[in-house]
Amino acid sequence: MPWREDLSPVRMERVSLVCPLERRREALTEVARHGTLELDLPYEPGTDAGELDRAEAAAVVRGPLAAWAGWSPAHDVPALAGALAPRGAGLVPLKKPRGTDPPTLLAGGGSKQAAPRPSRLLVDTYTTVPYGGVDPALLAALAYVIMFGMMFGDAGQGLPLVAAGLVLRTGRVARLRRWRGAWLFVTGAGLAAVVFGVLYGEFFGPTGVLPVLWLDPLEEPIPLLIAAVLFGAVLLAGAYALGTVNRIREGGWGYALYARSGLAGSALFLAVGLLAWGLVAGAGPLVLAAAVLGVLALGFIFVGLFTESGGGAGGGLQASVELVDTVVQLGSNLVSFARLAAFGLTHAALMGVVWDGTTALWAPDWRAVAAVLVFLVGNAVTFALEGLVAGIQALRLEYYELFSRVFQAEGRRFRPWAPDLDGAPGPDAAGSTAGAGRHRPRPRGNRHRASPIQ
C-alpha cells in the first residue's frame, strides 16, 4: 500500500449507478455483494430483507433507465463496473456536489476480510478524520505508548502488560474478545514500560536487579521534569505541523495563515521556543527574533479571530479575549506534559515504599512470608492504580493537547450499501475498502435524494 494512504483517507469518486429499469434488482444485488458503493438514499438504510425493495423503489427513473448516486473508493470503481457490465448496468462519473465532502474511508485494509487497524483506535474514538485531512493514527499510537511508558517505567511490571496484549491478540479468551482491538496498545504500552524501566533502573521497584542507565526518578526529578517538557514540545510541534497541513487543505493558505492551529499558531509556538532557547543560552539575538516573530504571529491570529467574530467593537473585544486565551492555553498545554515526569516519579515512589517495606520485614523466619505478601500485594496495587492513571493521562494529553490542534472539523465515515441479502454476515465497513460490515445509518444532515445528474 502506498505510504500516502497511511496518512490520508482513501480517494473517493462520485458516481451514478445506472441500469435498465427492469434490471434494477440485479444491479443492486451485485452492488450489495461487492460492498464498495455508498448509495444516497432518502431514508436510513437497513440490513433486513426488505432493504432491497426499498432501495429499488428509491431509484430515480428517467425513461427506460433507473439510477442512484453515491460514493465509491476510486480503486474499487473498475472492479464494480466490470461486475455490473454483464447485467447491463454501469457507473457514470459525477462531479462532487458543492458544499459536500466525500465520506472518509481510512487505510486499514483492502479486502472484505480485513479488520480495522488497532492503531486506529485512538483517532476513531476521538473523531472521524475529515476527507482530505491528515490521518495521524500511527503517530498518535506511537506517542501514546511512549507517554505511557514514561509514566509507568518499570521493566518488571511492563512484562505482564506485554503478555496481556499478546493474549488479547489471540482472541482465545471469550470474555476478552471485545477488547481485542486494543491489543496493540496494551502490548506497545508494556514494551514502552519495559524500556523506560531499564532506563530508570526499575524492576518491580528499585530492587537493584537493573542498573540506572539514564535517570533515577527519585534522585533526579528535575532533569526528568525537563525531559518530559521537552518531549511534550516535540509532540506539540508535530501537532502544529499536522494542523497546518489540515488548515491548508480545509481552507487554503489564507485560512491557514491566520489560524491558531495553522501557520500563525505554529509561528507563535516557534517564538516561544526561540525565547526559551535565547534565555537559557543568554543569546540576545534569539530573544529579539522570538519577540518579533511572536508579535507578528499574534497579529495574524488577532486578524483571524476578528474576522471570525464578525468585526466591529464586539468582535474586537471577543478577539482580544480569545487572543489572551490562546497565549495562556499554549503555555498551559506545554507545562501539562510535566505530568509525564510527575506520574513517573509517583510510580517510582510507590514502588520504593513497597520495596522498603519488603526489605524491612525480610528475615529467615516466618517474617519472610509477610515480606513476600507485602511485595506481591504492593506490586499488584501499584500496577492497577498506576496503570489506570498512566493510561488515562496519556489519553488526555493526546486528546486535549495534540488532537485539538490537528482537528478542527469532523468527517463522515464511509458506509457502503451492503445489506444482508442471503443471511450471511455483511462485510465490515469500518476497516476495509470493501466495506466489510453492515451499512450503518448516516447522520441526517448528510442525507439527500440520489440523482444521476447530481
What descriptive keywords fit this protein?
454 residues; mainly alpha; Alpha-Beta Plaits; 3 domains
Q: In a nutshell, what does this entry contain?
A:
It is built from 13 helices and 5 strands.
Number of helices: 13
Give the class-level CATH name of the largest domain: Alpha Beta
Kindly state the mean pLDDT as a whole number?
A: 87
CATH topology of the largest domain: Alpha-Beta Plaits
Task: Estimate the global geometry from the Cα principal axes.
Answer: flat
Give the helix level as a range of percent: 55-70%
What is the string of helix and strand elements? EHEHEEHEHHHHHHHHHH
Structure commentary:
The structure is a single chain. It is built from 13 helices and five strands. Strands 1, 2, 3, 4 and 5 form a five-stranded antiparallel beta sheet that branches. Helix 8 packs antiparallel against helix 9 and helix 8 runs parallel beside helix 13. The longest helix has 40 residues. The radius of gyration is 28 Å and the shape is flat.
List the helices and strands and how they pair.
Layout: E1 12-20, H1 24-34, E2 38-39, H2 51-57, E3 60-62, E4 65-73, H3 77-84, E5 90-93, H4 121-126, H5 137-151, H6 155-170, H7 183-200, H8 221-258, H9 263-281, H10 284-309, H11 312-336, H12 339-361, H13 367-406
